[in-house]
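REQUEST
  id: r-88c1
  op: predict_structure
  target: Secreted protein
  payload:
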Amino acid sequence: MKTPDLSDPRSRHRVVAVLAAGVTVLLLTGIGVYGLITGPPTRDPGSDGGTEPGPVVTMPSDPVPTATPRLPTVAAADDPETFARNVAEALFAWDTASGFMPLDYTSVILAVGDPTGAEQAGLASDIASYLPNREAWIELRQYATAQHLTIDNLFVPDDWDTAVAQAQPSQLAPGTIAYTIEGTRHREGLWNDEEVTSEHSVAFTVFLICGLTYDTCHLLRLSQPDNPLQ
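RESPONSE
  id: r-88c1
  status: 200
  body:
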């Protein structure tokens, strides 16, 4: 197949489309108070999102990183707003040229999950809806695609206040709280050694548990991508 000419606007649009392709939203039910009580829904492991086929390029399948690769970390915090920001930034921080795979990035978020383990399976399913699946990851690696998040707004949604008011005292542990985060997902990659970028607005909700139950905050669940509590 002939490699598209980058000067052709249609070719440039195709590679930008590969970088901007989002993960298909999984049909996860029970997020919110009900989900925190009942646990994870059933999920088809093969239903992760991906990208549409991109052009064939003559680039190494494993680009050499320019620095020693490191996984992101979620800094511990006892302040729920600070912790929500830390989780959000780590959730969207990945680099296909690092040598790591989606499961490696999943482990970073799971490390700050529910200490009891009751929500870990559901949280793992939630995280998968934010990451490219393995096939999409390999495709994006051809372009050395990396991603990060800038946060524009963070707030406790009115829907959460309503849910707390309607919940029975025994249904929510002390310190359980939700934050909705609005921001911009940035992706960068290479096409014939030329940098290309894309941006996409995102919104989602993180469900946390902090004091009085624990000395530091932990992540319980995530909403569907772009389906936050309002």
